Amino acid sequence: MSRIKKIVMLTQQHKEIILATVPVLKENGVTLTKHFYTRMFTHHPELKNLFNMGNQNSGKQQTALAMAVLSYAENISNPGVLMPVIDMIGQKHTSLNIQPEQYNIVGTHLLASIKEVLQEAATDEILEAWSAAYNQLADIMIGHEQKIYDTKKEEKGNWLGWRSFIVKSKVEESSEITSFYLKPKDGQTIPEHKPGQYLSIKVFLPELNLEQIRQYSISSAPNGEYYRISVKRERGAHIQVEGMISNYLHDYIFEGSEVELSSPAGNFVLQENENKKVFISGGIGQTPLLSMLETLDLNEKVEHDVVWIHACRNKEVHAFADKIKHIESNHSKLSKYQFYDNVEETIADPSILQGHIDFTKIADWKFDKDAEYYVCGPRIFIEKMVDNLKTNQVKEEQIFFEEFGPKSL
User: Fold this and answer.
1) The whole model's pTM is what?
2) Distance of CA 192 to the CA centre of its chain
């Protein structure tokens, strides 16, 4: 399972050398990963169809990779502690249909980049150590991803690679968010996703002359018939690449349109137990949590309390408000709280709270240390919510969060 031309087994001496390079990675990590991506795309421009060029342009992907390389170096003697991250990346890779031979491409250009960026500091000993370290990581990733692929093969209705779906309906949920109901073109069965998972969708963007792939959370409960994704339109005079696919779906995908999807993936999922659930979302971050909430609503056995806390700018952009009210009316265990930025609307409706999510504004609020907290939204929103929960003695293992885009948290 070697990934690069020279096969080198990782030794204790190699591990010590890798650990010694940690300060260098902290100082030069992003410079290294920027060089790496530029080099790889120069030699393999076809990979631009696979990578999110919006995240490339913004620098998010380079930063995320630098953090991942640093984390691997710091834990080189015990990579098992990184398994949650390895699973998260493996889920993403399988949604993109990454194959083992592509690790060889990455390894070749990563090692070349180390040599070209660090120059004289990249001694033969350092290059050999990183060659061995990369082979170890590649083998771990390939092995883990193969298990995911094998599981998909065995599941009825599941598939590998890309499958054609038809947009059966397109529904405006707010002034910004539209839902797409997707059914398989072949009319065959589909697997029931785990609440919280996402789909990858592939479209051709004429502006870039590239295929681009994006992930969208499934916003419906598992049903075996269709998937629903709910997509936010990006506004502004100059839309960045990140928003091009979202706007393309809004403008050019209609009922009857055909789209290419990979099968459900992701490890931000609803835990199957009887613990109290607290869902905390900002803006479009409510989509995976809505799938979880709809699943609980359909389960007549739910006996535990459920709390829904959502924040957005105003009523105009607030999606699924009526749906949440309907679930609340049929679920005696559900309590919901809505925060709006708009002051006038909070005055008009006393059930709406003003400003960003502030637990002190919720009457009789108590942090339940035995509850599970699911958080999704922009990075800054997640940071604030998670810090707030930890400050109030909620254990880390009781907090689950999903950051859209390259992981920086």
Assistant:
1) 0.92
2) 19
